Here is the input.
Amino acid sequence: MSGRTRLTGRLPDTVTAWLARGVIVFLYVPIVVVVVLSFNDSDVTYRWAGFSTRWYGVLAQDTDLLSALRVSAEVGVVSATLATAGGLLAAMGMGRLGPRGRALFSGSLFLPLVIPEIVLGVALLSVFGTLKASLGLTTLVLGHLVVTLPYAALIVLGAHRALDPALEEAATDLGCGGWQRFRLVTVPLLKQALLASWLLCFTISFGNIVMSTFTSGVGTTTLPLRVYSLLKTGLTPEINALGTLLVLFTFVIILGAGLRQMRRVLVGDGTD
Amino acid sequence: MTVTAAPPAPVPVPPAARTGRARHRAVTFALLAPAGLTVLALVLVPLVLVVRNSFALPDAYGGIEGGFTFANYTELFDPVYLKVFGYSLGMAALNTAVCLLLGYLVSYYLAGRSPQRQGLLLLLIIVPFWTDFLVRTFAWINLLSPGGPVNGLTDALGITHGPAQWIPSQGASFVGLVYAFLPTAIFPIYATLRGVDPSLGEAARDLGCGWWRVHTRVLLPLVRPGLLAAALLTFIPTLGVFVIPVLLGGGKNQLVGNLIVTLYTEFRNQPMGAAASVVLLVLMIASVAVLGTAARRLRRRTS
Here is the structure.
């Protein structure tokens, strides 16, 4: 009897395990294909015509894409810095609130996570329209700040909550003022989380297309917006080369942020 | 607090304590201000403005004229727009269902591995999650193009004969949506499933439950909070997508996201765009409410 149930339990488990492995492979096939086809010598992306790195050369000469890259990098650096700083201050401030205030504040802080990004974009555009503000780098940064701040808060808040409060108390007892305690105790202890927050916010900003659609102006086209308009006329091997570099960039970001931070954000792992 | 006698007139302590408390409050306020003001000025006020604009009349340039009308909403009842909403809801529901199913499958597989293997496999899911959204979308143009890799495979297997027109199509658009949201759906399911004691499944099996019943009667109810979270993170964002239907679907079958972008950038009808955005917002609030009630009922039953 028990042998039979074991057997009926094991076969479906084997099947589902293979299906799961298949799904994980499914996640990689498109990425691998982009990387492989970026080295394709053909003018048609998907027909293999021998190995070549010429599309990377074409990419390096593409001034339109490079200027879009510059806009994205600038906006990414500024919004990641602002979001991480805002997240850090909020984390420290929330530690000083009562439970009800904390719940209310974190509720509003994480609100943008559940609102469709396109609505957030439309909403910001309405404000800029009412204020007659011209769209450009500033409006892009503000838009990206809205998108990145909840993630920064999520990472820094989690790390700050995991800190032993005795460390900050000890610093106070040893005569540290607020600023010294912040500079010598809080920030060094949160260094990993702050780095992870900055890198992830930069990545989110750098790849953002929805918010940018509503907040970028003439002359401040971001890289994703530029690529999107190129893709509307068709995929070129040059875009595959760019995609490959972006995949590489993802690996660097994940390595930089650290797997432990990633896991804490995505699946709520403890600090172990 | 326990002092009942009137304190002697000039005591230096209470004022100092009071300034101390005031200072504490000022510092707390200063710390919370940057993030709080960002949310207030860039999220809450703008949302109120969108709601207001959705009742406004358009001016000659498609901007906001002011005034008050329900016309922007009644115009959304045009069959053309109703079709977009219906199609979006169906597509989002289908995408959510597939993502939950595959997400559960992968999570169950992950949770059954050794801790080291789980870490590695999780990394394998984190990489595509953080890979640029556009890259993950245009990757499918490579794959599905006539004479592309998938077509080559089906030709070799004798399923197709020669170049197949799979792109643009609704099917390609759907595959793109599943691919975009699957990693997002896996994380919350895995996070919940990992917290479930594996001996519960074994106990059910020892008590004679077959594989199907172990999952439907024991494990699925326990991971329902994770499934609800995954559904929330898939369903609403799918409605707002506009890149995938354009690049993979040829722009023929639009989602609400496409409608909003078109109303704002091409038709230049901001009040109607605002109305469509408010409808999306209401759909979001409704699904949060429905899922929230489901989660609460679940908690009551299990506790």
